[in-house]
Structures are given as C-alpha cells and as structure tokens.
Amino acid sequence: MTRIRSYLFNAYWAIWTALFLVPLGLFALAGAPTRPIRAVTRLWARGILAGLRHIVGLDYVEEGREHIPSQPCLIVANHQSAWETLAFLVLVPDVAIVAKRELLAIPVVGWFLRRSPMIVIDRTNGTQALRTMIDMGREAVAAGRSVLIFPEGTRGSISDPLQFKRGVELLYGRLDLPVVPVAVNSGLFWPGGSALQAGTVVVSYLAAVRPGLSAGEFLAGTERAIDQELNRWRHVSPVIPEAVVS
C-alpha cells in the first residue's frame, strides 16, 4: 500500500504541476512579474503538501515558530529530502532559498523558481557561486525577504552527523542578520530512493543566533544546535508525534 500511495502521489504531482503551464504562459507574456509569481509558486507548494497529506498520509507540525523574527533573518536548516525544499515556500512566505542550478531543469517548477527569484548557484564554480550567493542574498534582504540555506549542500541521512560546507559562514558574516537554526526530520518519511511513508514531519525552529560572532563560533554553535535536536529522532522508526498540526 505504501508503494501504491507513492505512485499515486507522483501522478498527482505531475498533473498538479502541469496545470501551472497556463499561469506560466500568462506570466511570460506579462514580463514575469515577481510578486504574482511568488504567490503562484506558494500555491503550487501548498497543493503538493495537500497531496502528501491526503494521498500519502504525510503531514507536518511546526515547533518553536516564535523564534522567527519579524524582520528578515538567515534560516539555516538541515536537508534530508525534497520535502523541506518545497515546504519552506509555504512555511516562510517570500523566502529566498539558496538552491542548486540543477533544480531549474525541473519542468515548470524550475521556471517559477528562477523568477521568484531564488538564489540559484552553480556549485561547480566555487568562487563565483559564493559571490552570487552573497550578492543575491543582500538583494533579497534589501527587499525585505529572509534567506534560507541548506549548508550541507546535499541531502543527508538523519543518522549522519551534521557537517556544513563552505559558504554559510560567509553569508552569515556578510548579511549581518540573526540566524534561526532549523532541524527537520523529513528523512524518516521521504528517504531518497524509497517509497513515501505516512507520518508527521517535525519542523523545529531553534533559538536565534545573534549576528557578529566569529565564523568558528557561528559554525560550531549552529551545527551543534541542529545536531542535538536531530538526536530526538535518530534510531527511531517513523512515528506521528503528539503535536498540533499547522
């Protein structure tokens, strides 16, 4: 049944995404206005989350949302599945996500992500990628948007210790914003290459890290905070936590 639900969800994903070809065409003719495009991108993401909830039985809860400041911030989250990449479009409206260029190759979705706009970098071009990330991050903050980065660079297993790649400390230093560490346990329910599982993803927002720390202090403190939170779910089977659904 789990595999059948996964197949049904994949079919739903394809059909739901295809429906956005119509607004894509309209937006292209209108010069790709960013605010309406962001709104439609969030609508698409909400539809995907609804499909996960009703077809797969996969929902989510948020904990510690009071840690997100009212002003723009830098959000640093672990990365375990495709779930958080699309969910944060809903969880933090108008967020600018640091994303790898390969995501732009996804039909329809890639067009919307590029024009939202997200902070798209080419990871094969290290120095230029860092410069692009910082410059576009500053532009997003100037426009009143928070910036989200998955500093592991790729999806990892929930059992793996957290290890940030180079770049997040530069973004922290240049943007001079409070940082909200986020721990996500989506890998329990949407592991790479495996069928989707029913359950409840927990998004845990942790206490904000103030700006102005040294790169070493920032990295050690943020990695440790997220890693300790992930210990809640390591070596356990997928379960539905007792919490109020968002």
From TrEMBL:
Assigned keywords, A-Z: Acyltransferase, Membrane, Transferase, Transmembrane, Transmembrane helix
Transmembrane segments: 12-32
Matches recorded under SUPFAM superfamilies: Glycerol-3-phosphate (1)-acyltransferase
Any GO MF annotation of the entry: acyltransferase activity
Domain Phospholipid/glycerol acyltransferase: 73-187
Pathway: Lipid metabolism
InterPro entries membership: Plipid/glycerol_acylTrfase
Highest taxon listed in the record's lineage: Bacteria
Protein's name according to its UniProt entry: Lysophospholipid acyltransferase family protein
Organism: Methylobacterium ajmalii
Higher taxonomy: Bacteria, Pseudomonadati, Pseudomonadota, Alphaproteobacteria, Hyphomicrobiales
